[in-house]
Amino acid sequence: MVFEMGVPVPATLRPPPSDPVPVPPRRRPGSVRRTSTLLMTWPGGLGTDLHLDGRARDLLTPSEGEPEVLRSATLHVVTDRQRQILSLDADPVVSDVQRLVGCRAGSNLRTAIAEQALEEVEAGTPLHLLLDDLAGSTLISGFAMALWAGEFPGLRERMTSAGSQQVMRGICSGFRDGSSALTPEGTIRGISTNTPEPGPLADPADPLSWHAEPPRPPMAMRRARRIDVWGEDGELHVNAMFRDSCWDPQGRENVVHEYELLGRAGADGTLRSITAVPKVLPYAECPLAAANAAWLEGTPLRAMRAEVLQRLRSTDCCTHLNDGLRSLAEVPVLAVALEA
Question: Is 278 among the domain residues?
Answer without folding.
Answer: yes
